[in-house]
Amino acid sequence: MASGNGGQIAFAKLNSLYSDVNTVNLWFPFVSESLEHTLQELEEGTITSRRDAPDSFKGLDGGGGDINFEPNPNALGHIFKAWFGTHAASAVTAAGSLGANSGNFSAYPQQWHKFTPRQSSYSDRTFLEPYNVMVYRDVGSAWLHKGVIAPNFKLQVQANQLVKASVSVMARQVDRIERTAAIESLVSSGGRPWVWDMASIEVSTIGVATAGLIADTGFEAINLSFDFPHEGVPLLDGTKYNGEFTPSDFRRVTIDGTVSFRDQDEYDAFTTYEARRMRITLLNVNSNFYLGNPASADTTKFLGYPGLRVHLPQLKFTSWSAPIGGPNRLTASFNAKAEYSDADGFSVCAELLNIVASVDYTQGY
User: Fold this and answer.
1) How far apart are CA 356 and CA 303, in angstroms?
2) How do residues 292-328 score in pLDDT, each as one tens digit?
3) 249: phi then psi, degrees, rounded to nearest 5
4) pLDDT band for position 105 (50/70/90)?
5) CA 302 from centre of chain
6) How far from 233 is each of 120, 228, 241, 283, CA to CA, in Å?
7) Which H or E element spans position 74?
């Protein structure tokens, strides 16, 4: 009898949406998944004397679904590369710089990565970069989703919780293969997932300058949704698979959350419809573990620890409410959106500190 704890997800980056390879080279840590092989139905429309439904035929063949996971800095970079597309990186400290009690990761360099949204298509067949994603369900063969793109991604930070994330994928083709064994696992270099007390949120009180950012300790929960709707395009190419994946709407980043109702600052920003800058940081500060040389560790400079930093240079509040639901404590709920900043050249940017080399995010099969 199959069970969930015997399940596995692995993936590999592809060079082309049409790459016909069964390769997966990295295990991906996950909590649950709903990846599915889907078949569309084509039903005859000819009128006959019968009231019974007419015959049907196999239509478009594809796949997709959601993967829920607790993000860590090594695995998260692959999701960012799939959604953002544009990537820059540098080694902060060289290999062999030993961290205190860093164990298996002591010989790895500290790597800095920056992800920004691409403005040009990856290829003439897909705007986003394609991947293979394999899911094994503890019995028999594994399912291999080929030509996968990731148009939607969510990040959730809530008080008294582990940080959570989910990614939605679309697959051009689904096959069954023998389960892949003995490949590298994307475990956290910090030895633990991000926890809510590792998060800090900064918001500018006036304007969008980085210098105006001030720590705001009133947030109870904040959720970021990275949405870039796509549609599959079937072609007259002799197959039942989508021939292209193309954007079907604008790329949008939306933010919602809950704030302890201490003042009306967010309401003022909502009513004036003024843009503010926001920066969200997750830093796994552990005195027993450093990335690279311990002398380089500096939380104020985002250095030395497994970390994530999301920049929203031009954020606008689109809704705000603080209803009285009874006699007890009040909280305010809000919705906001990220707008493109001409000064920064992006609507959202993500930085990661981890031990993953740049080539691991870019090399394809």
Assistant:
1) 15
2) 666 667 778 888 788 999 999 999 999 999 999 899 9
3) -165, 175
4) low
5) 20
6) 19, 16, 9, 41
7) helix 73-84
CA pair distance 160, 152, nearest whole angstrom:
25
Give the H/E segment covering residue 267.
Answer: helix 265-272
SS3 32: strand
Query: What is the pTM for the complete model shown?
Result: 0.93
- Cβ–Cβ < 8 Å for 135, 8: yes
CB 62, CB 232: distance < 8 Å:
yes
pLDDT tens profile 157-212:
999 999 999 999 999 999 999 988 777 677 766 557 899 999 999 999 887 888 88
The phi-psi region of residue 144 (left if phi > 0; otherwise alpha if psi is between -120 and 50; otherwise beta) is: beta
Burial class (CB in 10 A: 0-12, 13-18, 19+), 144: buried
Return all residues near 89 (Cβ < 8 A) that are at least 6 apart.
Answer: 111, 112, 113, 114, 358, 361
Q: Is the dihedral of CA 160, 165, 34, 135 positive or negative?
A: negative
CA distances from 4 to 67, 139, 211 (A): 14, 10, 48
| Backbone phi, psi, residue 237, to 5° | -120, 15
Which contacts of 17-20 are long-range, i.e. CB under 8 A and separated by 24 or more positions? 17/123, 17/125, 17/126, 17/130, 17/147, 17/172, 17/244, 17/245, 18/125, 18/147, 19/130, 19/132, 19/146, 19/147, 19/364, 19/365, 20/146
> Cβ distance 146 to 171 under 8 Å?
yes
CB 296 within 8 A of CB 322: no
